[in-house]
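Message: I would value a second opinion on how I read folds in token form. Give me a protein, with the fold worked out from its sequence. Write it directly below this note and I will take it from there.
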Amino acid sequence: MLQNNQLKSVPAEAFNNLHNLQSLRLDANHISGVPAGSFSGLRSLRHLWLDDNALTEVPAEALSELPALQAMTLALNHIRHVPDHAFSALGRLVVLHLNNNRIVSMGTNCFHGLHSLETLIICAFVISVKQKHNLKTFCIFFSRGFHSNKIQSIPDHAFTGNPSLTTVFFYDNPIQSVGRTAFQNLPELRTLSLNGAAELNEFPDLTGTRSLESLTITGARITSLPTSVCEQLPNLQLLDLSYNQIQSLPSFSACESLQKLDLHHNEVEELEENTFTGLTSLRFLDLSWNRLSTVKPNGFSALPALNRLDLSSNQLSSLPLSGLQTLTHLRLAGNGQLMELIAREDLPRVRWMELPYAFQCCAFISCERKGGSSWEKEEAVEAAGRDAAILSKPDWEDFLMEFEDGPKPQHAVHCSPTPGPLRPCRHLLGSWMIRGGVWLMAGTSLISNSLVVLAVFFSPASLVTPTKLLIGLLALVNGLMGVWGGWLAAVDAWTFGSFWRFGAKWESSFLCHLSSFLCVFASQTGLFLLTVAALERCVAMSSLSAGRSAGWPLWIRLSICLCFLLGAAITLPPLVAGNSSTSFCLPLPSVSSSSSLAFSVSMVLFDSLCFLLMTLAYIRFYCQSSKAAPACDEEAALTRHVAWLLFSDCLLYLPVAFLSFSSLLRLPAVGPEAAKALLLLVAPLPACVNPLLYLLFNPLARAELASLAKRTCRGVAPSKLRRRATARGSTLDSDYDEDVEKQSCDSTQGLVAVEHLKEEEEWRGLHSAEAAGLHH
């Protein structure tokens, strides 16, 4: 035992006469070289420790004189290359450790002659592997935290001459090339694990390796599999080809013993009907994170033992359920286009599910204090109860017996995402209190904001000043909040009692995205307009106190444009990023996305800053107003109105801000029911309060509406008079026409008589003239 000394070399003839020595420990020294002949005469040596030294190469010539050696460690040295036939004379060697070196290359026949080798470790850690029946293990492991190996290539026929090898592991080495025939003709090989071969783009030829049971090739660039892969590996039980670039799959019909198939993170686009035909033992199938868009109708019908299926993060729009009755675990999350509902009867044994939408879980779990049975069955019971009056008693009893004999759930099902108040199963708005509140606020918001817009922009008594323009624009954007509430109320009425049937389509519809945009845009733009109005009031009143005319400053126009642009810029990113939303079409921050959380926190802080700025501006204004001359009544009324808007909106913003921070910090202070009430009843409340404050407490509004009403009435009265005059005129015209007709008849007769008399007089005059002529 010579370990833990300061030896720098092994003397040439130091051990020549130790013929019976069986164990030699030279570890933990500074040995940099072992010359040839150093171990001559050690014919009985069985164990040799040369680890934790400064060796830069394998002492092949010195080791050739140890025919009885069974275990040797060269770990923790500086060896960079393992040459050909380095251990060819060690036919009895069982264990060889080369871990924690700096190996970058190995000769093609570097392990030639190791016929008895059972464990070969070239790892960052000493791995103890135990198996029965003559374990043969080859392990290459790389860990970034230690001085480990950096094997870059595995040549063709690298393991030829090791027919007893049963296990080969490669872990995260910078492998750039792997010979296609590197693992051929290994009849005893049971496990092959090749991880991190980034430059491997072709599936290896495994001819002659028919005993392989576990094959793992991950992190490579394989694009296709040979059609004969199962013919070469008839005993394969586990196949892991994840993190490759496989685009199409061959038929695995010859892999009858296959139990686990892992193909996640590839580029598979389609599954044919014969892809998994004959896999009667397959229990686990992972096709997640592919580009799978089409599965043929009988794609899974030939898998009688399948109990775990992972199809998450694909592009599926439909899923055939034929042959999936044995499933206990199913993952479909990440398929945004898969909106079809799954009946519980199609998956009778399922225990754990992860689906794209929460509404698809309503058929598998209890929701809204209902039982665990499916919603179709509940609706069948309700329909049967409604029709009980028209059914005879025997028919009704038969119906109940058939219903009770139906399949009942005998086990609990874990399904995510879980339905809840924010994604309900039966009713979108839930309780009647919330439903009534949404209807009331939607109607109030639309009517009151419309009246404010009419009073400000269309009243003849209203002179549009900067403050009134801001109040009118604020009412306009607040009306958009009423549109959002009205849409929610209409969808709740349309899907009453069966929202789960339409929830997925509603959340992904254009109308839901548009309503989400309107709600957030109205909220943010309204806050910015109110901020500008508060600053404008302070500046205007200061100008009036100083005797200057406020007028229409340029910064007001620019600020109004900036409010709308900033509101749109804040609203669009969450929608474009696809943040999670509720059934109420409100974008919520994603807990798994740090950027989404950061954006939400920034928005809450920015809104709080706006309220703080308005509050400080008004405090400063009121401190200075006590020394200034009183303003006119109209300006004072507008200033008080903006102050009331600031107070009410700030008061209503506090619970919303508290809800935002508690959800971001994951505090259990606010439950989902309370959050739903805040989102639907408190958040849109400023859109109702703002116009009511102007209409009820501002004398300008009453004057403007009265003037508008008078002008409307004046416009309506003449039109009625004209219509009445027209009606009367038409009656008089009809009477006049009748008289005219009679008079025309009489006049015609009169004219005829007159003409007849004229003709007689002319005739008489003519005869009298003729008589006078004859007389003369």
About this structure: Residues 432-495+509-709 form a domain with the Rhopdopsin 7-helix transmembrane proteins fold (CATH 1.20.1070.10). Confidence is low (pLDDT under 50) at residues 124-136, 141-148, 367-409, 730-776. The longest helix spans residues 699-775.
